[in-house]
Amino acid sequence: MRLHQNDSLKASRPLQRSASGGCLNLLLTPIILSLVLGIATAAQATQYTFTTIDHPDALLTFTTRVNDVGQIVGVYKGEEGKFRGLLLNGGIFSTLDFPGASQTEVHGINNAGKIVGFYFDTPSFLGVHGFLLNAERFNVIDYPSASLTQANGINNTNQIVGAYSDGGRIHGFLLDGGNFSTIDFSGAFFTFPIGINDTSKIVGFYVKEEEGEKYSGFLYDAGSFSTINFPGALGTRVHGINNHSQMVGVYSDGSTTHGFLLDKGVFSTIDFPGASRTRVFGINNLSQIVGDYVDDNGVTHGFIAEPRMPAQ
Fold first, then answer.
1. Measured between alpha carbons, how far is 92 from 29 in angstroms, rounded to an integer?
2. The domain spanning residue 220 has which CATH number?
3. Of all residues in the chain, what percent are helix, strand and coil, respectively (each to 5)?
4. What secondary structure does DSSP assign to 26-72, as a single string?
5. Structural domain includes residue 10
6. In a domain, 4, yes or no
7. Any idea what the Cα angle at residue 198 is, between residues 193 and 201, rounded to 5°?
8. Residue 105 is part of which domain span?
9. What is the rounded (10 degree) CA torsion for 206, 280, 93, 273?
10. Backbone angles phi, psi at 209, to 5 degrees
């Protein structure tokens, strides 16, 4: 493992602007720490430059997606204990709060800057609704007659994937052109789509009753499911997929959680150096990866990992 520190981003002047029906507070640039970690694959050693992302007002920061123009979305928890959405664009943070919500989480962004996520309308976390944020306007996404709805991912053709509950089971959905369709893995009581690429390949995870609490990843393509499990793992979740069909997610080895990349059938573990836990949530078409990690003090930080070719 080779470590070095990159130059940090320059602090920007704080700006303030209001969203139509919402709150976007532009804040200062984050504290940056960069590291390099080599990850072996069957073909060659791929190196990643890791950059820590911490919202300046956060106790905890989670980064969930990055688009091809470098905009990053995620979630942070402030000192007041409230979870709030975040957008990091050009080194400047925006806080994304659904109007009147007790909590807001942001989980997807496409190249046009359209953002999806979900919000809680009560402090008890019982009322959960999806949303699309487009041109600073929030639009509610609720699966018809569902008791809760989460929007998790959006592609560049504006297809949205997520999950809903009918009061018993958790089902996946695809929202395309205003029309919902249900996505259920056969025999599962819990199907949870999280990511979608521009050819409508969908990834997520499922749980079957006969497998107890074990979760397994899936790829849903052209109406067919494929199960994806990291070799030897106790559980696997697939969180993101890009247009090269590179997939990222997390797996459990029984003691902690690791991130992974699946590229052309080869799994690679992705662990932030020195972290006690790493999770990977998103990958863009430049193969940049975002996720979060837990440090020695138990604090969660976001990160972006950028691929580097090995030295010749």
1. 5
2. 2.120.10.30
3. 0, 60, 40
4. EEPPPB--EEEEEEE-SS-EEEEEEEEEB-TTEEEEEEEEE-TT--E
5. no
6. no
7. 40
8. 16-308
9. 150
10. -60, -40
The helix or strand, by DSSP H or E, that contains position 84, with its residue range, turns out to be strand 83-89
**Which residues, at least 6 apart from 98, have a Cβ–Cβ distance to it below 8 Å?**
22, 85, 104, 119, 131, 138
Q: Which two tokens stand for residue 306?
A: 């950028």
Please write the tens of the pLDDT for every residue from 22-48: 333 322 223 233 333 333 333 444 789
The 10s digit of each residue's pLDDT in 65-96 is 999 999 999 999 999 999 999 999 999 999 99
Structural domain contains residue 203: yes
Phi, psi (rounded to 5 degrees) for 23: -130, 115
Smallest Cα–Cα separation from 133: which of 281, 19, 284, 55? 19
Q: How many CA atoms lie within 13 A of 261 on its CB side?
A: 26
Q: 226: which 2 tokens?
A: 């494929």
90 contacts 13 by C-beta, under 8 angstroms: no
211 contacts 178 by C-beta, under 8 angstroms: no
